[in-house]
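Final report, Chapter 2: Outcomes

The project's central promise was a pipeline that accepts a single protein chain and returns its three-dimensional structure in a standardized token representation, suitable for archiving and comparison. That pipeline is now operational. To close this chapter, we reproduce one record exactly as it appears in the project archive, with the input sequence first and the structure output second.
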Amino acid sequence: MYTIGVDLGGTQIRAGLFDQKGELLFKAEALTLAQEGAEAVISRIKQSIHEVIGFIEGPTSGSINGIGIGSPGPLNPFTGMVLSPSNLPGMVDIPLQQIIADEFHVPVYLNNDANAAALGEWLYGEGRHTKNMLYITISTGIGAGVIVDGHLLLGEQGSAGEVGHMIIDPQGPLCSCGNYGCFEACASGTGIVQRTKEKLARYTSEGQTSFSQLQLVDEDSLTSRDVFAAAMNNDALAMEIVEETRTYLGIGLINLINLYNPQKIIFGGGVSKAGDFLLKSAVEMAQQRSQLGMRDVEFTMASLGDNAGLYGAAALVSYHQQLG
């Protein structure tokens, strides 16, 4: 028996074939090209799944025990509906779970990509043998998947764990959700870049005589990686931004520890690849200032790498079938 995981992203669609041990045997990739509309995206999802099924020698109707799909939210995992992901224009109120089930005649499970990645790390990666853990992805945005007492926390509409939109600084930057000072607006890659641009604009308008390496970077191509590189080179402006980000992350981690009392917190996402340079002082802050009795938390980096989305999608099948 095999399991298929589908990682639906704004840029790429990836499908992977997994054996019963959770080993990735084969994967297929296609560009999402979301601007072509929902029908075209759904067609590419089906094509990718058919491609990985074709890898099985002499497949039978009983070869696949389920398909898991990790998708950007918002979505409803109970109804299998993709609601309105910002990076998938046109995918509005799409019953994706039912569409794929009708095509392949196997059980299909849908959840948001952060929840799927959390399950992947819990079943196959750094979260094994834990009952209570958080997976936090720090990338373009900030998302999380929460495992509580051995179960994925979903909430009433399946949207629990939207930690990127907890407010950590009411006077902070405007978030895409309309609030000010959300965790995501302050500490994600997008937030870091936006704060950098604002500081650079003030830096120039105030006629600063000192020079910042970031002034040499084209504003349209500026990334958080540029900011970290400049800070590692002792650039004063970049260091100021990094220090702010460390504080924002520390406050966010304190809140999460106090809310969920996890045994382990696992970091994923592109921004987290800055490693100790970004995370060490934030973790130390959280360990010093979270509630007594909750501070013995293990912090670690995700281990599934670029295939985390695929493992996570496949883990949806294993998790749901274990629940029965």
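Archive annotation: The mean pLDDT is 92.
This record, like all others produced under the grant, will remain available to the consortium after the project formally closes.
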